[in-house]
Amino acid sequence: MRLAKPLPPNSVIGILGGGQLGRMLALAAARLGLKCHIFAPEADSPAFQVAARHTCAAYDDAQALHAFATGIDVVTYEFENVPAETAAILARLVPLAPGSEALATSQDRFVEKTFLAGIGLETAEFAPVDDLDGLERAIARIGRPSILKTRRFGYDGKGQISIRHDIMLDAAWAQFGKRPAILEAFIDFEIEVSVIAARGWDGSIAVYDVPENRHVNHILHQSIVPAAIAQTTAAQARNIAGRITSALDYVGVIGVELFVARRDGQERLIVNEIAPRVHNSGHWTMDACIVSQFEQHIRAIAGWPLGDPGRHSDVVMTNLLGDEAENWRNLAREAQAGLHLYGKAECRPGRKMGHMNRLTPRQG
Amino acid sequence: MRLAKPLPPNSVIGILGGGQLGRMLALAAARLGLKCHIFAPEADSPAFQVAARHTCAAYDDAQALHAFATGIDVVTYEFENVPAETAAILARLVPLAPGSEALATSQDRFVEKTFLAGIGLETAEFAPVDDLDGLERAIARIGRPSILKTRRFGYDGKGQISIRHDIMLDAAWAQFGKRPAILEAFIDFEIEVSVIAARGWDGSIAVYDVPENRHVNHILHQSIVPAAIAQTTAAQARNIAGRITSALDYVGVIGVELFVARRDGQERLIVNEIAPRVHNSGHWTMDACIVSQFEQHIRAIAGWPLGDPGRHSDVVMTNLLGDEAENWRNLAREAQAGLHLYGKAECRPGRKMGHMNRLTPRQG
């Protein structure tokens, strides 16, 4: 179901998922005079604290989903692993954005890579792997080192192992857990970047500047804006994001992760993966842009004009993981820094508890 | 009661009043991982939509106030006309910021002007007026033109009449309604400015840059930052705000309205009034600063370090009154402009429905 017309102020946005992304979406919607109804199974969901309504129920609770859909004008989500049946129930009752195609594409790494290659974008060489024989065939073609990844439900480096030269394939396959997988060639990249783009129901597109993303233990540590890449490379990256959203007839904000490799002295972009939602590497927009990625997503799905993605400052976003957020008193003291804490009741090692945006005057 | 120690994330801020100021305070608190409990009598209070909890009850409902105080760590308010008894009940149970002295001072124009003059600040010449005789005596001293204002509950030009040369005093006093009043000399000012300042429990002070405020029909229309005044005048204005907060042992954000008059070719500052709360002329901080006046107020009352009040852009804030907000689709299209809508259910002529912050690169 498509949105019939732009949603006026006081309309209700339904959001699946009650974590920090849902919370920041709800805060951004409030700025525009829009209400939010959060649907999430966890009773202590941080997004519940800032939304006009919430439903605490399982994603497969069809009755709760029907009641939820009755009082909302559009539905979106903060995570790409929304069960297909949940999305299907809602999409029959209310406009769903981003749509089912974006969800299905991003939920399965093999489908995703096939889609990306199919629209002419460069990815790591890849092959599906369903059993040990398939792994051996894939290795014969792609070679080592390479990376075996679960097709579904992987995140932050979970569900993947490196296939180095010294590893035994049968042991690797057993260790991996014999799940449907994809083998990807190892990319010898210089840096990782991402593009945060938005597309409206009318096909309009807005793209933010490109951050460089630095990871620690496979978890995003910092996004540095602008990335230290050639302007032509940044323009290519932004163009790639636009092509992806158009090909998916996408509505909302998308995060596109890319590797920057060097070949014959030139920077080359290789698409790693897409996230059909607001993205951790776009949190810098909350303080360096007048319209954050969260407001942009709300504008896009509500049929509003997309906001100006222009950036008034240079910025470094740093995630606060686990007990790093307990340093809030010192962090709050820093000049020209935006501190964001997510209202999570429990602090666990590696858990995303907040982030800091440190601004500096824009250089050119 | 004073705050014993800084409130850690997940503490609960109590807010009296559920209008747009309470709403924007709640949104700012959420950014810092703090929860809000809104207390307001109107069932459709815009702030209810974005707060973890709310109580819909009258301000003189002692039982509801006691229950409210039980679950909060500090209490503040979005309007200066909090009944003294309400403030007294809460202040016995939980830290109240800004404190009772600030409330009492700002609720009565005569007390306010007496306080300001008492700490050596220039105000319009003024005299209390309780009856027609008093009005005649006041006019004999202060002269005409002058302005007769209600001592209490005036706002946006309501509760005041001009005493021009042609007006009959007995008719004016009858028209005014014979309420306790103050007569103020007419000030021949060039522009109106304001200062938004914050003071913490520890006496630390942070002051934003000075906006020029333009009114239409006595309602704020635009705040222009920076104001076109001499740097020394702006510094004096900021200094005045600091002196006021120190004299009141103030905690929180305060709005100080001043007239800029010219005497002997020099700019002179005359204090008009103070508002013991976040202030409409500080809404520009939401997009031109990294820490808005709303976050600053929450930081101050919660015992956090005050945030950097630095401004990264020049900005013009324009209020959206009544049906001006119905132009949201065109307003949302503007580049480098922050659109804020307040989620009010009903649009009435002159009602504050939202505001726009239009940014331009900072000039020096």
Write the layout of secondary structure elements.
2 copies of one chain form a homodimer.
Chain A: E1 12-16, H1 20-31, E2 35-40, E3 53-56, H2 62-70, E4 74-77, H3 84-93, H4 100-107, H5 109-118, E5 126-129, H6 132-142, E6 146-150, E7 160-163, H7 169-176, E8 181-185, E9 191-199, E10 205-207, E11 212-216, E12 219-225, H8 231-247, E13 252-263, E14 266-275, H9 285-288, H10 293-301, E15 313-321, H11 328-331, E16 337-341, E17 352-361
Parallel strand pairs in A: 1-2, 1-4, 2-3
Antiparallel strand pairs in A: 5-8, 6-7, 6-8, 9-10, 9-11, 9-13, 11-12, 12-15, 13-14, 15-17, 16-17
Structure description:
2 copies of one chain form a homodimer. By secondary structure, chain A is an alpha+beta fold. Chain A folds into 3 domains: 12-96, Rossmann fold (3-Layer(aba) Sandwich), CATH 3.40.50.20; 125-185, 2-Layer Sandwich (Dna Ligase, domain 1), CATH 3.30.1490.20; 191-361, ATP-grasp fold, B domain (D-amino Acid Aminotransferase, Chain A, domain 1, 2-Layer Sandwich). The first copy, chain A, contains 11 helices and 17 strands. The first copy, chain A, has helices spanning 20-31, 62-70, 84-93, 100-107, 109-118, 132-142, 169-176, 231-247, 285-288, 293-301, 328-331, and strands at 12-16, 35-40, 53-56, 74-77, 126-129, 146-150, 160-163, 181-185, 191-199, 205-207, 212-216, 219-225, 252-263, 266-275, 313-321, 337-341, 352-361. In chain A, strands 9, 10, 11, 12, 13, 14, 15, 16 and 17 form a 9-stranded antiparallel beta sheet that branches. A 4-stranded parallel beta sheet of chain A has the order 3-2-1-4, with helices on both faces. In chain A, helix 2 (62-70) packs parallel to helix 3 (84-93). The longest helix of chain A has 17 residues, at 231-247. Chain A is globular, with a radius of gyration of 20 Å. The mean pLDDT of chain A is 96.
